[in-house]
Specification:
The chain is α+β, with helices and mostly antiparallel strands. 33% of the residues lie in helices and 21% in strands. It is globular, with a radius of gyration of 15 Å.
Length: 121
């Protein structure tokens, strides 16, 4: 099991979101406030985790390897492939924050577009 990357969490905080850690454990759960009384849980999980919907959802694949290994996501109505270069290659480098923040903004803009297009249908 992997864990949600702490550098990604830091980038989310730099984007202005309030992030708290719900648990101190090997795979911590982070709570991100995105509106007055709305939060989302972030943690590393498999697609069939009980926290995820099991039907009527869009499966967004973010890495080529995962996309190839999971050709069918049971219960999904849509499958969307958005591949990103893993910013971990910049960990411990001077441009680390810049690269994580650039990817955060790219993901946000692409997901905004996807959500807008899906909601039209």
């Amino acid at each position: 099991m992997t864990r949600f990357n702490v550098n990604a969490v830091s980038s989310i905080q730099r984007m202005g979101f309030e992030v708290t850690s719900e648990e101190k454990r090997k795979n911590p759960i982070f709570s991100v406030r995105y509106s007055t009384n709305k939060t989302i849980k972030l943690f590393s999980k498999l697609y069939n985790n009980s926290e995820n919907k099991s039907e009527k959802f869009a499966a967004i694949m973010t890495c080529h390897e995962g996309d190839q290994r999971c050709p069918l996501i049971q219960g999904s109505e849509k499958r969307i492939s958005l591949f990103y270069e893993d910013p971990k290659i910049f960990d411990d480098k001077l441009i680390q924050k810049e690269k994580y923040d650039a990817l955060s903004l790219k993901i946000a803009s692409e997901l905004f577009y996807v959500f807008r297009e899906v909601s039209k249908k």
